[in-house]
Every structure is written in structure tokens, then in C-alpha cells.
Design a protein that fits this description.
alpha/beta; Immunoglobulin-like; 6-stranded parallel β-sheet; 20% helix
Length: 441
């Protein structure tokens, strides 16, 4: 047991760093919410089924709610309940009956078991999301888990392969390894499988210098997919920007991801992550309340200026993160730095990167996000790849990303596809694409 059941010391703690931080003696908990009126920290038994402590986080500094538990240890399971107005028309969707994932959770335990209780409103009610639901969601929610970040990296360091020598292989962790006959069956489909000799030897035979992993941030399977007997295979539905996706872990321990990175590095292969910071898995106004929506909907999401009940949707996924809010920028930058500094990845490919540049409706080429990345001493030194478009007006920005960024070239893709399909009149355009698209860059 990480905690004693009957008594629990609670100290004020500190507002920084955000998340749950083990310091060798206890755990500091810190959660940002600008508009909350009260925050409770809920601790669970080792199976995640029963609440063993509910702690009123009475201390607040600069809109961060915090406390320190000197008896907490790595492995502690927890979640939050956040109190405030339930006023969807005004942009607020607080509902303390809904257990919430820590946005800074480094590890996620358990499964999401879908039911109407996971929604902040009464599903099927005539008033839709305007009618608050009062059922407790904890039984169906996965839990955040405190980690011990210690890992023996040895002499592992960034490879920093020059761009002109870089050969990237985009792969799906499960798809690449699940049916490989030379990988042990119990490891197939996992981070551990990607670190095996058969997987690495195949990549090296191809001359690959970097793997670009399709989303490995923790994501969920949408309810409507499960109802059809389907799953979210590709993973572009993130909810945890710090936690490795558990379904790809053979051991259930985040150290497996670190071991994979260390092993690939030892063979001269960089690790680039495909990251989805433009939206979250909570969907539109009729989506579930799992994390950001219940913590501070107005802060985390871009809301419609005329009808704050609804979300701005530049992604086609129901919502868009509010990049104008400094705490949302902090969340994303903290996440990126975590994966570089603690997980040793070598770069990122940003899904729908144009959405990250939107400061109102227009795409701002010198948006705050890109300015911050450019001057960041950690992130400015890794590989940065943009998918340079989104679904909003003016979102196609191929050739317009700032210095320090590379781009997926949609015009190259379209020209190659059309040429191989047999379309005529493409020799000139084909030459531009094969020689580096000087008309764009």
C-alpha cells in the first residue's frame, strides 16, 4: 500500500511543478484551474476501485491548487474533483461528480469503461448538455498514477543526426511489430518489441536513421467506435500529453518506453514522436468530461465568441486547445520538454500544426507558440516537423513555417500521387518536388 488508510498528513506543498512530483520523501500535487471554487484530490486503493482518501486542496497560489502528502509514494493512484459553476452557456462545465485525469499525469492506470456517467450532462435529456448529470464517474474512469522517474540512462545522449543525413521511417508501434515472426509473441505490439534485435536490424538494413512513432501519448477509444465493435487504432485522440499509451506496454511500466529509446539510440536511430496538441479526446459540447473540460473549460478550450456553449473546431475533432492562454502554452511546452529531457526523444512531428498558430481565427505565422519554441534552449535544439495545415480558413500553410521548422510537403505528396496515377502535364512540377520544392522553400 502506498498510503496508510486511517490517517494521512497533508501539508501545503507548492504550486510548482504542476502534476504529481515524487521528491524521495513524499509527493507534491499541483493543479491549475483559473475559475474553480474548490478542488479535491481523491486517492484510490491499489486496484483503483475504491476511494481511500478525499483531500480538500485548500492552498491556492496564482490559480494553482496544491498540497503535499509526505506519506504518498510512487504507485499512488489519484484523480481530481473540481467544483465551480455548471453553466455551459457561459462556457463553464464544472461537475464535481466527475473524476478527472491530471493533465500532467505521467502514468495512467486502468481502463476507461464507457457509460453515461462519464458525461457531465444527462445524456438523452431534451436540454442536452445544459442539463447537469449527478452520477459519480469514478468507477469507469482510469486513474492517474504517481511515478518514480529514476532510470539508468548511462551515456545515452541526443544523436543530433544532420537533416541532410536523416532518413525517417514513420511507423505504428503495434502495427510494425504485432505480426513480426522473429519477435517473441509476448512482446509483439509493444515498445519492448521495437527495442528487439529483429526490429532494429530491419530498420538498419533499410538505412533508417530515425523512427517517427505515430501517436504514443495516452489516448482513448471513442464510445461510438466501441459500440460498433471498433477501436481507435491510429491514436490521434490524445488525452494524456505526458503519459505513454498503456496499450503498447508489455510490462505496464513507463521505463519500458525509456528502454526502447535507449536501445534505438545505441543503434544510431533517433526517436521522433507524432504529437497531437491541437485538440483533445473530449470532443465537442456533447463529449465526455474526463479532464480539461471539468478542470477549466474556459481556459483550456477555444470557445465560440458569440455562443460560449460551443467550441471552435479547426481540427474536425470537436474542439481546439486555446493557445492564447498562457497555462495552455505552458502545458504543451512542459509536455514537450518532458519528452526530451526525461524520455530522451529527439524531436516531434506536430499534427495539424496550423491550429497551434491560431491566435484568434487567422493563422499567425509568428504566433506565440512558435516564438516560444524558437527561443527555448531545449526545444529549439530538437527536430521539429510541422503538418502545415488544419481544417480552418487559411489553414494550408505549406512553406510558411518559421526558421527552425521543417514541414511535411503536401504538394510533394500530391504531385507524386498524381504522377504515379498517370496524370499528364506533371513533369515540371515533378522536377520541382524531387529537387526540394524551391518554389515553396
Amino acid at each position: 500500500m502506498p498510503l496508510r488508510k486511517n490517517s494521512l498528513a497533508v501539508w501545503p506543498g507548492h504550486p510548482y511543478p504542476l502534476g504529481a512530483s515524487w521528491d524521495g520523501e513524499g509527493v507534491n500535487f499541483a493543479l491549475f484551474s483559473e475559475h474553480a471554487e474548490q478542488v479535491e484530490l481523491c486517492l484510490f486503493d491499489p486496484n483503483g476501485r475504491r476511494t481511500i482518501h478525499t483531500i480538500d486542496m485548500r492552498w491556492q497560489t496564482d490559480q494553482v491548487w496544491h498540497c503535499y502528502l509526505p506519506e504518498a509514494r510512487p504507485g499512488t493512484l489519484y484523480g481530481y474533483r473540481v467544483y465551480g459553476p455548471y453553466d455551459p452557456a457561459g462556457g463553464h462545465r464544472f461537475n464535481p461528480k466527475k473524476l478527472l485525469l491530471d493533465p500532467y499525469a505521467k502514468d495512467i492506470f486502468g481502463q476507461l469503461r464507457w457509460s453515461d456517467a462519464l458525461f457531465g450532462y444527462r445524456v438523452g435529456h431534451a436540454d442536452e448538455d445544459l442539463a447537469m448529470d449527478r452520477r459519480d464517474s469514478a468507477a469507469g474512469m482510469f486513474k492517474s498514477r504517481v511515478i518514480d522517474p529514476a532510470f539508468t540512462w548511462g551515456d545515452d545522449k541526443p544523436l543530433r543526426t544532420p537533416w541532410h543525413d536523416t532518413v525517417i521511417y514513420e511507423l505504428h508501434v503495434k502495427g510494425f511489430t504485432a505480426r513480426h515472426p522473429d519477435i517473441p509473441p509476448q512482446l509483439r505490439g509493444t515498445y519492448a518489441a521495437l527495442a528487439t534485435a529483429p526490429a532494429i536490424e530491419h530498420l538498419k538494413r533499410l538505412g533508417v536513421t530515425a523512427v517517427e512513432l505515430m501517436p504514443t501519448h495516452a489516448f482513448i477509444d471513442d464510445r461510438h467506435l466501441l459500440q460498433k465493435g471498433l477501436r481507435n487504432y491510429w491514436g490521434y485522440n490524445s488525452l494524456g500529453f505526458f503519459a505513454p499509451e498503456p496499450r503498447y506496454s508489455a510490462s505496464g511500466n513507463i521505463k519500458e518506453f525509456k528502454t526502447m529509446v535507449k536501445r534505438l539510440h545505441s543503434e544510431g536511430i533517433e526517436v521522433i514522436l507524432d504529437v497531437v496538441y491541437n485538440h483533445t479526446a473530449e470532443g465537442n459540447h456533447l463529449g465526455p468530461t474526463l479532464c480539461f473540460r471539468g478542470i477549466d473549460n474556459c481556459a483550456y478550450y477555444s470557445l465560440n465568441h458569440d455562443a460560449r456553449r460551443y467550441y471552435m473546431d479547426y481540427t474536425g475533432c470537436g474542439n481546439t486547445l486555446n493557445m492564447r492562454h498562457p497555462r495552455v502554452l505552458q502545458l504543451i511546452l512542459d509536455s514537450l520538454r518532458y519528452w526530451v529531457q526525461e524520455m530522451h526523444v529527439d524531436g516531434f512531428r506536430f499534427d495539424l500544426a496550423s491550429a497551434l498558430a491560431r491566435e484568434l481565427h487567422a493563422v499567425d505565422r509568428l504566433g506565440a507558440f512558435f516564438d516560444i519554441i524558437h527561443q527555448d534552449p531545449v526545444l529549439s535544439q530538437v527536430k521539429l516537423i510541422a503538418e502545415p495545415w488544419d481544417l480552418g480558413e487559411g489553414g494550408y500553410q505549406v512553406g510558411n513555417f518559421p526558421v527552425g521548422w521543417t514541414e511535411w510537403n503536401g504538394k510533394y505528396r500530391d504531385t507524386m500521387r498524381a504522377y504515379w496515377k498517370g496524370d499528364g502535364g506533371l513533369i515540371g512540377d515533378l522536377a520541382y518536388r524531387l529537387t526540394g520544392s524551391s518554389d515553396l522553400y
